[in-house]
Amino acid sequence: MATALITGSKHRTSRLDGTLRAHGGDVVVADSRDGIAALAARLPQRSVGAYVQLLMHADAGLSWAPPVTERIETVALVAPLLAPKAAVLLVADDPADPAHDPRVADGLCLLAEAALSGAEYGGVKVSVLPEASPEAITRALGHDGPAGPAAPLADLGADRDYADWRTDILSLTSSTDVTYFGWVNQDGRPKIGLLRGSVLSPLPVPFESGGLWGGTDPGAEALGRALIADTLGGQPVEDGLVELFVKDVIGSLPPTGFELSAGEVQRWLRQHLTSPPGA
Fold first, then answer.
1. Where are the beta strands (DSSP E) in the chain?
2. Domain count, the chain
3. Same domain, 173 and 225
4. Which of 86, 230, 248, 270 sits at 20 to 30 Å (Cα–Cα) from 237?
């Protein structure tokens, strides 16, 4: 199975090719429309575990529509190659790229998801990344850094009987997208879970006094920082961004529990991130 498929102009793909190869596995690259079509005809179906789409042309031109249309057409072209639960990452770092505008990025993500809405693509995850550094891309693809991937379910509901476990946890696994859940157990303790595919894992949130959501206290700030960091693949998070996220999102969550998709967090970030985290 190919670890990654990269498409885009040659000077863009060359910066990423070596980095992904360093993580092991095969990497295939196409830097033209004909090259993409040739790969689609040559590679086995369902053989690509991750697809990174960079801008094909150096200048997006005067109209935003052709580059966006080309991106969606390319997603549809490589769709048969995508393995179940493959990651599709549309990189939009160039100011000349229409998708660099958060409004266009939101629409692009929805169109790509629509192009992959068939049953055979049920587990494919699409996201738009406004940064093209190899480090950011490998984090977004799940080539985790020192922290590694999400830990398996450890203590979520460990003190629950089977009926409560089934109600609180197993019933959550119908979704294939990344989703964050918060609930209060029988002891009145807040619990945070991360559902990826059919695996629910605890989301590490440093202990803070006060509630974790439905307010703006230190506990809510700790939760907001954890959600943003997880969505951004572990990148550093600025305090001002966390404060705004808590005010806009965390503070308005129902105190009894919540369900928040990674897509919702990403859309909020695209609207409020004016520079890469830590810049």
1. 2-7, 26-30, 48-53, 82-91, 125-129, 179-184, 190-196, 199-202, 257-261
2. 2
3. yes
4. 86
